[in-house]
Design the sequence.
């Protein structure tokens, strides 16, 4: 049984619609121990025959047998395995990795076989000495002469140590002395292996060859034993071949070597590395910018939007209530105020969105209610409040808001208009003039505000609760809803505690025509409370008794009013504060704040998420994501094509690895290592860059406003996206390389 047998094998080339015959109907038989020399004029098919034998190229007709096994059904990867196991090649065009050193090139063959490092070091050193390149072992192949390259190619083939060695014009580039040395080497090898050499200089091999094959026009025209050593000698040598069997120890390239080669490939061509790095920086930059713009969009929407329930829709505002719906305590307030990232806490949240009038005979002012404790600005005129009933006003000094002479308002007494008829007197202690540009809230709400002390706030809130509660009165089995305020339920000092004074119309609800002495129930119900109060009807008032019973003069102005004692009113409506507003220092901290408050027992309403926008918010967020994905895909494809261009010569590299018998999977991994590594380096640069910007070494507001949006989680997500992209790109790239046979790729790329 021969080692290699070809039966009627033909190979055609198809190029530009023309079919050329490479070899046609070739029948050959090779055995171990043979030293075969193939000759013939240029274009006679010698290289084609070698490529077919070494599985580098496919054949179209006939059958090739390897140790008796058919190969016509072999896939590309079957041939790679076959090459790794059986074939060492010396190519006419060397097929060396020119960016590797001599040593690295020779070692490559053994690394692909998975030999252990110590063995590789020893054997490679030895072989390099044998071919006379010891002093050049650390020089890059690209810097060698043609003859030296030829010797590297031979050294690599020797290092591979397989049963078959094929060589295409191995002495073509050598002077006759070196050529003789190579011939000696090959003769040595042929002692127990099959050596097939193509040459047009038969004389160099005459003394050593065991067989000569002459080709012409793709056909074998002569196949004879050499002059002195006939087939007999071959069989003697063939006998000796049983000494060693090289094929079994090949376990394939290790993961460590794959990683090592990937890392080496990343850096061994600096220009290429820098180009790749630039492309990846572009990818990192554009993907992160896209990512940030999606996050930023959310905030922009809320800055430009408005809200139906809250007049102050600052995107940094979070409205909270306790999960058990109880009023806030001092301890609650303090805990929140001392939490990180809290810029300020508005305790009287519900009033924050409420505006009230203060007025006297000459002037009236309308503004949102704030507690004096929230005052964080300098007074423009006047002084800080010292007494319990003093307030501060804030607004534009436009000659209208505060009148022509704002200073005249200082020290004047005003009445706060609240529901339920409370007459709360306040004095203006100071005024703040707002400039539109220096007020961050100006864009979110009206700028007129009144800062009240606690005591007044309590009164204002009571009125507010009264008008926002559903107040019902159950009288003699009937229930009716009361309006609180003028013309409805009012307070009156002349009504004693526990009593209620009704208009005379209620008398008719009772059988005897007298309401007095009967019990009624008042009930005030709101989101946070449900309070009931039993009162005795003290009587009813009519036209004649009105002034005596109420102290008011004109009944017509007070028609239908119902009076209770201020203490009872207080019992119904004086509740604590159930809602507060937390302002975070930066919108990027909103999510964290929300989590923290929810864990702390609060219901949380992030105002930013409940904002209407001129451009429908839904559409913005629905469109934003796909647009970002499309942009990222575009970036991906641009990057892919640029990277492909940059890696063009990597095709030759991988074709070379395949010729040495490397399979697709390890080759892919080597590629992946390279791209992921460049990706990580550019990502590291990106992170260094952002750190420099955060710490203020690089000074750009634009940049900073972007970077503040990136949290640790975002950095991780970004890294995953980028690594995923580079794995995808390397996968695509390798698929394109492995589409055709090893020789095909080489021809395409070289
Ligand atoms: P040799 O090595 O003896 O010089 P080759 O095997 O290289 O001959 O070429 C054999 C024949 O096949 C020649 O006619 C040549 O033109 C043709 N041939 C070789 N390679 C290709 C190719 N890649 N595309 C088309 N024709 C080719
Ligand atoms: Mg040739």
Sequence:
């Amino acid at each position: 049984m021969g080692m290699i047998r070809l039966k009627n094998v033909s190979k055609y080339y198809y190029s530009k619609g023309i079919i050329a015959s490479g070899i046609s109907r070739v029948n050959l038989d090779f055995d171990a121990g043979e030293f075969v020399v193939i000759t013939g004029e240029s274009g006679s098919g010698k290289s084609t025959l070698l490529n077919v034998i070494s599985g580098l190229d496919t054949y179209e007709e006939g059958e090739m047998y390897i140790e008796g096994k058919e190969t016509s059904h072999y896939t590309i990867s079957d041939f790679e395995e076959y090459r790794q196991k059986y074939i060492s090649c010396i190519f006419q065009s060397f097929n060396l990795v020119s960016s590797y050193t001599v040593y690295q090139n020779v070692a490559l063959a053994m690394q692909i076989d998975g030999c252990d490092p110590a063995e590789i070091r020893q054997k490679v050193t030895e072989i390099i000495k044998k071919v006379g390149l010891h002093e050049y072992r650390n020089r890059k192949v690209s810097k060698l002469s043609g003859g030296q390259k030829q010797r590297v190619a031979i050294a690599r083939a020797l290092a591979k140590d397989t049963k078959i060695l094929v060589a295409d014009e191995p002495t073509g580039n050598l002077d006759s002395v070196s050529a003789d040395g190579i011939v000696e080497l090959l003769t040595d090898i042929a002692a127990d292996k099959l050596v097939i050499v193509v040459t047009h200089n038969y004389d160099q091999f005459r003394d050593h060859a065991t067989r000569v094959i002459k080709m012409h026009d793709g056909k074998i025209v002569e196949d004879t034993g050499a002059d002195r050593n006939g087939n007999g000698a071959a069989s003697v040598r063939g006998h000796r071949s049983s000494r060693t069997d090289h094929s079994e120890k090949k376990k394939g390239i290790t993961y460590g070597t794959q990683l090592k080669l990937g890392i080496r490939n990343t850096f061994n061509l600096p220009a290429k590395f820098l180009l790749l790095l630039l492309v990846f920086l572009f990818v990192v930059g554009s993907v992160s910018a896209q990512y940030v713009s999606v996050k930023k969009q959310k905030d922009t929407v809320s800055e430009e939007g408005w809200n139906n329930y809250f007049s102050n829709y600052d995107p940094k505002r979070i409205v909270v209530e306790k999960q058990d719906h109880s009023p806030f305590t001092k301890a609650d307030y303090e805990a929140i105020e001392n939490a990180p990232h809290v810029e300020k806490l508005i305790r009287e949240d519900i009033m924050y969105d409420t505006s009230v009038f203060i007025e006297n005979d000459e002037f009236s002012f309308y503004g949102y209610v704030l507690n004096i404790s929230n005052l964080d600005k300098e007074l423009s005129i006047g002084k800080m409040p010292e007494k319990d009933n003093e307030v501060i006003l804030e607004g534009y000094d436009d000659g209208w808001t505060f009148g022509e002479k704002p200073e005249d308002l200082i020290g004047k007494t005003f009445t706060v208009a609240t529901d339920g008829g409370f007459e709360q007197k306040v004095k203006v202690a100071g005024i703040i003039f707002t400039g539109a540009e220096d007020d961050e809230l100006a864009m979110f709400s009206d700028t007129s505000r009144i800062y009240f002390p606690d005591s007044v706030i309590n009164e204002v809130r009571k009125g507010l609760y009264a008008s926002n509660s559903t107040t019902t009165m159950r009288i003699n089995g009937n229930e009716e809803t009361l309006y609180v305020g003028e013309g409805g339920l009012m307070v009156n000092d002349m009504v004693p505690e526990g009593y209620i004074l009704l208009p005379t119309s209620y008398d008719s609800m009772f059988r005897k025509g007298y309401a007095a002495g009967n019990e009624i129930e008042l009930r005030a119900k709101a989101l946070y409370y449900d309070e009931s109060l039993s009162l005795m009807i003290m009587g009813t008032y009519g036209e004649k008794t009105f002034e005596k019973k109420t102290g008011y003069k004109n009944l017509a102005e007070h028609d239908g009013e119902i009076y209770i004692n201020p203490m009872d009113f207080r019992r119904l409506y004086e509740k604590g504060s159930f809602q507060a507003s937390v302002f975070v220092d930066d919108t990027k901290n909103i999510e964290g704040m929300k989590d923290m408050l929810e864990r702390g027992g609060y219901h949380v309403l992030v105002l930013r998420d409940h904002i209407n926008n001129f451009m429908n918010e839904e559409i913005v967020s629905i469109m934003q994501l796909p647009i970002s994905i499309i942009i990222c895909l575009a970036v991906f494809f641009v990057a892919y094509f640029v990277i492909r261009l940059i890696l063009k010569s990597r095709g030759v590299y991988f074709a070379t690895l395949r010729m040495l018998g490397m399979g697709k999977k390890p080759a892919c991994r080597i590629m992946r290592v390279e791209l992921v590594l460049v990706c990580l380096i550019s990502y590291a640069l990106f992170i260094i860059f952002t750190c420099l910007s955060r710490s203020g070494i690089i000074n750009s507001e634009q940049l900073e406003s972007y970077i503040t949006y990136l949290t640790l989680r975002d950095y991780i997500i970004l890294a995953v996206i980028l690594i995923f992209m580079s794995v995808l790109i390397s996968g695509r790239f390798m698929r394109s390389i492995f589409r055709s046979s090893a020789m095909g790729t080489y021809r395409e790329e070289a």
